[in-house]
Specification:
By secondary structure, the protein is an alpha+beta fold. It is built from seven helices and 14 strands. Among the domains are: about 80 residues, no CATH class; about 110 residues, Transferase(Phosphotransferase), domain 1, CATH 1.10.510. The strands form four sheets. The protein has a six-stranded antiparallel β-sheet. Strand 1 and strand 2 form a beta hairpin. Helix 6 runs antiparallel to helix 7. The longest helix is centred in the C-terminal third of the chain and has 20 residues. The protein is globular, with a radius of gyration of 20 Å.
Length: about 325
Amino acid sequence: MTRISAGFPCVPQQHRISTHPLRLLFRTCLATGWDDFIIWVHLFYSGIYSPLSTVQHSHQPAQANLAMPSATRPEDAIEVVASEQVWEETDNDELVFDHIRVILRQGSRYLFARQQDRYAPIDATKLDLEEIPDTFLYAQIPAGWTRAPDPLPADSYIKQPNLLEYGETSNCCTVLLQEAEIYEVLRQHPHPNIARYYGCVVENGRFRGICLQRYSTTLKQRVGRHVKAKDEREPALSETEKRRLVQGIRDGVAHLHLLGLVHNDLNPSNVMVEDDAAIIIDFDSCRRQGEPMGMKGPTPGWGTYTEYANEESDVRNLDQIERYLLG
């Protein structure tokens, strides 16, 4: 039996199960009913595959204390921070709902709980709450790593650790620190088609997240908005603009490969469009050539999982993005 973690309401995570995502999509709807089908399809084709990354593509404005409780909230109040559904894949390839994982916050304390009812609203008073220890919540950055400026730049946002990894990893900062390590390399070797990294956010000696430049629009949004809204104020990309974007992505990827890095998750949701330039973002799947991929992998529909990082994965995705834009 295989366990699948899924963001609410029902989105299996591709990197936690070894099956084709389209097959998993239809089996999920067969198992749970077709009411979720439209939601699933929307999220699937929007490239939203990892609900555990809480701010991956939102590019929210920077805040100085993202992980700290609000000063106006009563200290004894409990709020839900994040949740995800967990499904079991049986030996017969059937999907069965198991429970909902919930992260809550009370003042400066973080709590974990499981809810068995899929449809009931999350009510902290009915949950068996477990306090999350500091050893999971916090980490220190290595000496010499870049610290984000204080105050944070106005054009920045913070990518934070994923608390829903509680019980699966020893520290929620592990994956994000791996990404920060990649950004430290890229900071020494910048490129105009790769996201700008300001440094690590550190409070009281503890790692809080990665500070990155905020960009306004993903490639998928730029293409999709015109198609859906027929907005004359934002006309469709011309052939010349599309080719310029494709070349920018190829230039950024070539730069990564020269540094011995493989992105491993190139897709239209991981490319931003800023001032008509393509900017590659989201390096949590990035590895050095030949390194094990572990649980990380490509977005469903944009590549297949490989055990080790290989430049050929990026090359295939580049070709797919070019077809996506140019047909």
